[in-house]
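To the team - protoporphyrin IX containing FE complex, inputs and output below.
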Amino acid sequence: MAPTTRPGYRLALCATALALLVVMLGAYTRLTHAGLGCPDWPGCYGFIGVPQNEAQLAHAERHFPEAPVEAQKGWNEMVHRYFAGSLGLLIAVLAAQAIRRGGRDGQPLKLPLALLALVLVQAAFGMWTVTLKLWPQVVSAHLLGGFATLSLLFLLSLRLSGALPPLAGVLPQLRALAALALVVVIGQIALGGWVSSNYAAVACVDLPTCHGEWWPATDFANGFHLTQHIGPNYLGGQLDSEARTAIHLSHRLGAVLVSLLLLVLAVQLLRHGRSRLAGLLLLALLAQVSLGVANVLLHLPLAVALAHNLGGAALLLVLVLINYRLRVPVALKVDSGLRLVARGSLRRVG
Ligand code: HEM
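Output:
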């Protein structure tokens, strides 16, 4: 039986693609040091675009003397905001449609509502990113929120796609392993955000050693002092070299842990006949580790840093897909007279 998609599927898919673009634009803004390209929010020096003519530039100088206009950085920031705003509207439409359908016929309701709440929180974090002048805690939370929005939209698309999940029983251990892998990858993404927002990417420029040593001088207490408030302006980073080294090394060690765990998961998927999922996982992992290594050895070229961000998103989506495939969230009728009644179990009907 060919799977039939549910209403809202195409819109959810468009929103997922747009979320990926917004995440990439956010990374571009961060990596081009344009996070403070507009010193206010939601406007830019009080305008809906970047100040251009003489009167607007004079207004900007009068009201924001400490932040001279840099048109390119301003546009990087504003383009990200406009695309993020459009994504918010799209999610609001998805939520309104879900409310109208009232969760009938297995249509998701809680997920679109959770997405709406999340995108509103993201808007607030976007504002704090600017008003708290790139405080790393806020920048990292904003990055994680972006990845969460993307993953949940992808999950919504999967649930609306109507594709039948595999029928064969799945071992609870395999499901638990996949769930653990998802959590660990989220942790690694958070660490990556912390590296980026603390400008620790080039804290070590050799690999696998750092400063020519296997374990150089590090300061974990300051590197992970989450309530620290050094400022006032965090652009370019404020931590000293040893604290940045600690952050950088943690992300490397995290990558080793992630790789080992994902390799075990891939082997288990293969053993359970899920070779395509295993292949996808290995491909995403290999690409992400290679891009991470290239980031270090080539001293963070913009294109590689952007691709590493995209790779993190791809790895996350692959894990969402695997976890979804290993679970059976809704009752689905199938031709053979078998009905899927609960997570992975089969019952004959009729
Ligand atoms: C294995 C899975 C990995 C994941 C999921 C991951 C994820 C991430 C993410 C999400 C970021 C933040 C990007 C941004 O802010 O735009 C990041 C940053 C970074 N990662 Fe990874 N990473 C992984 C492996 C590695 C490896 C193996 C290395 C190198 C040894 C590495 C080096 C870096 C560096 C240098 C940055 C900072 C880039 C910047 O400042 O923008 N990563 N990582």
